[in-house]
Amino acid sequence: MLDGMDGPPGAPNTRTLSEALSRRLVADAGVAVSDWATAPDPDAAVEAASAMGLPVVAKLCGDSIAHKTERGLVRLSLGSEDEVRAAAIELLGAATVADGAVELLVSTMVRGNRELIAGMVRDPQFGPCVMLGVGGILAEALADVAFRLAPLSALDAHDLVDDLGAQALLGAFRGEPAVDRDALADTLCALGALAADPNVVSIDLNPLIVVDGVAVAVDALVEVADA
Known about the structure:
The protein is α+β, with helices and mostly antiparallel strands. Helices cover 28% and strands 30% of the residues. The chain has helices at residues 19-29, 42-52, 81-93, 139-142, 154-163, 181-194, and strands at residues 14-16, 36-39, 56-61, 74-78, 103-108, 115-123, 127-134, 145-149, 200-211, 214-217, 220-225. A hairpin with a 3-residue loop joins β6 and β7 (127-134). α2 (42-52) packs across α3 and α5 packs across α6.
């Protein structure tokens, strides 16, 4: 659940989708997501990494794996096929019985000096809301987040972007272009549109890394009602 909002009391049981399914859901809705592929074994992971171009990120992926970083299930900046293969073997070896069915997720290594967070949550008082905030190492220090009721119009989405306190981070920054506010607004509208499905309980895009002005989601977690 996103910080700053509470889940509805007496909410139905929920479950998380795997990162692969979460990525597909938000990408189909119009969110810019880093390139990725799933792989059942180390050989397939190497093939996927070679196809998308090194360096890459490798993660263990499954419906029961929501907090990969805390469990050490992410490998960054893999710059060779040997590194990808070794990481894949380690990750698959770290799977537990409680994880259920797992696979590897290989994605492009995205780098940028600015990070944002965005998502959707259902508040017990206000209903579905879209959130945008400053992410990365500044997230805890600034606690800079803003909310709007879903669904969002383009104007609502732009107002949400304007509500962030750290506007300087959205302008030209360290030689990088300003954040494309129209593209960011499109992402926020996409999150708001997904709220129309009552089975989608929450969405967490953390982080969105700004690359050439475009905020790209490099991780996604979707929580759905458990039928």
